[in-house]
Amino acid sequence: MGLLSLGTPLHWDQAKHYAEHVRYHGISQFLNTWDRLKDRQGDELLWGDEVEYMVIQLDTDNKDAVLSLCQTEVLAKLQALTDDMNTKTGSSAVPPVFHPEYGRYMLESTPGAPYSGSVHDLLLVESNMRLRRHLARSNLKPDQIPITLTSFPRMGVPGKFTEPYYDPTEAVSSHSLFLPEQITNPHARFPTLTANIRRRRKSKVAINLPIFIDNRTPRPFIDPTTPWHRDVFPEDAEARNGAALIDHIYMDAMGFGMGCCCLQLTFQCCNIDQSRRMYDALIPIGPIMLALTAASPLWRGYIADVDCRWNVIAGSVDDRTEEERGLKPLKENRMQIPKSRYDSVDLYISETWMNRPEYNDNPLPIDQSLYDRMRKHGIDDLLSKHIAHMFIRDPIVIFSELIDQDDTKSTDHFENIQSTNWQTLRFKPPPPNSPIGWRVEFRSMEVQMTDFENAAFAVFIVLLSRAIMSMNINLYIPISKVDENMRRAQQRDAVNQAKFYFRREVFTPASSRATSGATTPNGVTTFSYASSTISGASPNGNGTTNGLHHLAYPNGCPRRKQRVMENCFPPPPPPDDGLAGKDVSEEYAEYTMNEIISGRGDAFPGLIGLVEAYLDTLDLNDSEQRRITSYLNLIRRRANGSLKTAAAWTRDFVRSHPSYNLIRSERGVRRAPDLLPEDYTGSNEDPSS
Ligand code: ADP
Ligand code: MG
Ligand code: MG
Ligand code: MG
């Protein structure tokens, strides 16, 4: 979860006095990065995933499963193990990396080294995820398992839901009615984040998820498990004074959100401009993938009427005061702020001609003096706004030892603000003293129960990113419509019930212009395509979507297929007839998930169609082809409703078992034909099974 620094963390009453200092020097540090690396070119594709786990303690005698607060010990063991693997294997295979996370029952794992653009690496993703799960599992006790559930269904219920048990009346950081202090990673950063968010906000966070209503739900639903009359912390009165809504599941602590697990992907881009294009291109994809990966319908022992974690996390770290939330006139605070610091992206940042100013239609409070400073330094409007918008936030955790830094060497202050702006996408500048280039992180997806599914979504996104960049695909819609899609994506069964705003015409006039033989900065020659092929896929074209497959046959001749996915793409040339486009409101419409993923006849090949067109340019062997086909089928079948999301599957499982105990390890879901395709054999290959 970003930066972990060691030192003495400041109470909010002291930390707030350094907010200006951290912001000012954070920008100085960013300007230094900019000066050094803005012209950096030609980075190859490197990419990697992050998978988060909950460690579950099984009590087979009592048929119970609780969260095991064993993170510290397990991480120490895993560290020793991977160090040992390092010495044994030398440099040939890099062992995976395990990271701490917010919850003391959580683990995060990443591959030991990023994947390259080689298509061979696409097959490593799933086996690497399996290895990581196996390593985690084999360093746990026999009755403990690492599971990839997005939300733990019984977190915060009365009685025991952790091993060991702790009493929530001692939750000195969160003051929660439900979660004990010990739910949180003991590293100073995490309790301080929790406490300082509460102190800055001047109340506890308040999350209210609508309860799922069926004929067994008492109405009105007033939660009998909330200790309404507790009187331990001053904030205990909040629930009874209106913070907890009727007919809702009320949650009052950072742990409910930051204790969720997700699946994230990071891609290194060719240069800064392409990372900005990629960032923008993936913004409208965020809510689509959130709906497709929906996996969290159960909260604090209840069934919610939503399927996703997103708004829970947004609420769980919402440090805005009442003034900033627009509930009181501004007196102490600088400005109203429409969103939590964990929320969807507010601004497209690419300077490509495709990015029309009209698309940036969200309110965008910025720190004006920092914006002016970046503009004066020569940074363009959009990037300056992006940073100045993140920098309206206060730093929440400041370590006294790290207040004074050398801004030419450190980016700690920049990262302090950046890493506590948790958005659907993150634009990651290169870190100091490392060979790493400009990166983009895709952050909206919920973690899936099996590594097969997690690998499928990871591989899909990396292929989609290549398809978009190589074919100059234009996915822009107004960013307010992306936000509306985020809202819809979290609704119960959004995959089947909701429609989503999506661009009507994704092929650009530039897609149809020959870009023959364009040579990229790393010297790789990119493919070209004839105008008839791509326009044939457009609604007013006269060809068919099969025209897309001509991507592999520029000028009618087969292009030599590649074993390496390219990373450098020439900027899309503007259309010949100028930029004057349609009215923006005519550029998008509402579509079903199935239409977005699998297409609408000749009008649009769907995201999978784009990926397949791109795959045609790659030289895949049979097993690569088969594996990728099974990944795409999973996604296609999620989108058409013939396989359930984990959220739907879990909801149905619970509803059909009135006296349930929800325990599903990766192995437990092996025979679930409504969740996984018939040919799913994944777990049988799992070394842990
Ligand atoms: P964070 O938690 O800050 O998002 P992590 O270190 O947990 O970051 O995960 C970063 C991911 O990026 C890992 O999957 C890692 O393999 C991958 N990665 C590492 N180096 C690069 C690189 N140069 N380009 C792209 N991805 C990288
Ligand atoms: Mg994480
Ligand atoms: Mg991480
Ligand atoms: Mg991450």
From TrEMBL:
Main EC class the enzyme belongs to: ligase
Pathway: Sulfur metabolism; glutathione biosynthesis; glutathione from L-cysteine and L-glutamate: step 1/2
Pfam hit, one: GCS
Coiled coil regions, renumbered to chain: none
UniProtKB keywords: ATP-binding, Glutathione biosynthesis, Ligase, Nucleotide-binding
Superkingdom of origin organism: Eukaryota
GO BP of this protein: glutathione biosynthetic process
Recorded catalytic activity of this chain's protein: L-cysteine + L-glutamate + ATP = gamma-L-glutamyl-L-cysteine + ADP + phosphate + H(+)
GO cellular component: glutamate-cysteine ligase complex
InterPro entries to which the protein is assigned, alphabetical: GCS (IPR004308), Gln_synth/guanido_kin_cat_dom (IPR014746)
Molecular-function GO terms, alphabetical: ATP binding; glutamate-cysteine ligase activity
Entry's EC annotation: 6.3.2.2
Protein family: Belongs to the glutamate--cysteine ligase type 3 family.
Protein's name according to its UniProt entry: Glutamate--cysteine ligase
Organism of this sequence: Multifurca ochricompacta
Highest classification ranks of the organism: Eukaryota, Fungi, Dikarya, Basidiomycota, Agaricomycotina
